[in-house]
Design brief:
The chain has helices at about 30-40, 45-50, 55-60, 70-80, 85-100, 105-110, 125-175, 180-225. By secondary structure, it is mostly helical. The chain has 2 domains: about 25-100, no CATH class; about 135-225. The protein is elongated. The two termini are about 20 Å apart.
C-alpha cells in the first residue's frame, strides 16, 4: 500500500527562494536540488523580505537538510533586520521530510552513493528508507565495478592503438635495405614483444567485456528483485 506524500505547489520557493537557483521538488530531481543548494548562498536581502518560510522549510526538508539549516537563513536575514518565522519553517520542513524520507528516494540516494539524513525522518518511515538505501547501495557497487571495467577496456584500447602505431613504424623501418644487422635484430625483438603484448591486451579486453556482461545481468536481476525496472 503506497503512502501519498504531501506536496507544495513549487519547492523552488516562490517569494523567498533558499537559493537563487530555480528548482522543483520531485524524487527524480532531489539530487539536483541538493547540489544546487550546496553551491548557492543562503538568502538575499530581497528573499529575506519576501520569504515564504513554510515554502523554504518544505524545500529544505525535501532535500534532507538538517534542522540547522534554519540557522544559516537566520544569519543571512539578521544582517537585514529580519527574523525567520520558525514555526512556519519547521511546519514546512516536516512536510518536506515526508517526501525526502520515502523509500523510493532512499533507493535513489543509495544508488548514487549519496549521504542520507534518515535521522530526521519520522520513525515509521526510517525502516523502509534504510532498506531501500542499502539496496540502492548494492546496485551502486555493481555499477561502479562495471565502470571500472569499462575504464580498463578504454585504457587497453588506447595502449593497443599506441602499440599499433609503433608496430607500423617498425615495419616501415625494417624495409630499409641498409639497416644494420644489430638494429634489425632489435626491431624484430621489439616487434615480437609488441605483438605478444597486443594479443594479451585483446584477451584481457574480451575477459573484461564478459565480466561487464555478467555484472549488467546481475544489475538487471537485482533491480527486478528490488521492484525497480
Amino acid at each position: 500500500m503506497s503512502m501519498k506524500t504531501p506536496t507544495m505547489k513549487n519547492a523552488s520557493h516562490q517569494n523567498g527562494n533558499v537559493t537563487q537557483c530555480p528548482v522543483s521538488v520531485r524524487f527524480a530531481s532531489i539530487a539536483m536540488l541538493a547540489l544546487t543548494l550546496a553551491g548557492c548562498a543562503s538568502l538575499s536581502p530581497e528573499q529575506c523580505r519576501n520569504a515564504n518560510w513554510r515554502q523554504i522549510g518544505f524545500t529544505d526538508g525535501a532535500n534532507g537538510a538538517s534542522a540547522a539549516r534554519i540557522d544559516e537563513h537566520a544569519k543571512a536575514c539578521a544582517e537585514h533586520g529580519i527574523r525567520p518565522n520558525l514555526d512556519e519553517y519547521l511546519s514546512g520542513r516536516s512536510q518536506g521530510l515526508l517526501n525526502y524520507c520515502q523509500a523510493e528516494n532512499g533507493f535513489s540516494l543509495g544508488r548514487r552513493a549519496s549521504e542520507h539524513n534518515v535521522a530526521d525522518c519520522p520513525e515509521n518511515l526510517k525502516p523502509a528508507f534504510l532498506e531501500q538505501y542499502h539496496r540502492g547501495s548494492q546496485i551502486h557497487s555493481l555499477e561502479e565495478e562495471i565502470r571500472s571495467y569499462r575504464y580498463r577496456i578504454d585504457s587497453n584500447r588506447t595502449e593497443i592503438r599506441h602499440d599499433d602505431e609503433r608496430i607500423a613504424a617498425i615495419k616501415t623501418e625494417l624495409l630499409k635495405r641498409d639497416l644494420p644487422t644489430d638494429r634489425r635484430a632489435a626491431l624484430l625483438s621489439e616487434y615480437e614483444r609488441l605483438v605478444e603484448k597486443k594479443d594479451a591486451l585483446n584477451r584481457n579486453r574480451l575477459f573484461l567485456q564478459r565480466e561487464i556482461d555478467r555484472l549488467e545481468i546481475r544489475v538487471r536481476v537485482q533491480l527486478r528483485e528490488f521492484g525497480h525496472y
